[in-house]
Amino acid sequence: MMNNRSLNDTLAYNRRAVRHGGAVACLALSALLLISLLSHRASAQESGIPIGSTPLATAAAETLDGMPADLSAWIGKEPIFIEFWATWCPNCRELEPQLLAVQKQFAGRVRFVGVAVSVNQSAALVKRYVEQHGLQGEQLYDRKGFLTDAYDVPATSYVVVLNAKGVVVYTGTGGKQNLAAAIAKAF
To answer: Is the CATH code 3.40.30.10 the one for domain 43-184?
Structure first.
């Protein structure tokens, strides 16, 4: 069984290979993500960007309409809830009802940002999903994996909460996270 460090190293290698057009790496990444999701080993603070750190504010992505975007417009100015997700992710779907509830509960007090990973999906597919499911907040597409790398994302359904100073106060993966409690740590 892989430990978290070797899994993270393998995922990072595969993300770089996928960005360079490696179809085999894409299949390997999908298999590793499935193993990670099924193992239920990753939970809050076991992997990803460390609690107490300040992430790179300038890691670039794009809007679902293809315009350049980065998180620097919000980091250090307000609490931010970020979910790294995919349309095909079962844990993301499991979190979705809770996500919609906290988006209403914390509207106007927390910036919600969805970062769709680019593996096996397109910006157009993500845009349709967002519209059909009523997801709120900023929705970004991480075509080149810059945000995924900057936040050391271990798997989809990865949530990062930053306080108003831009400091990471929570990280977690999986469909059974307590999103309201995670957001409360930002205040």
So the answer is: yes
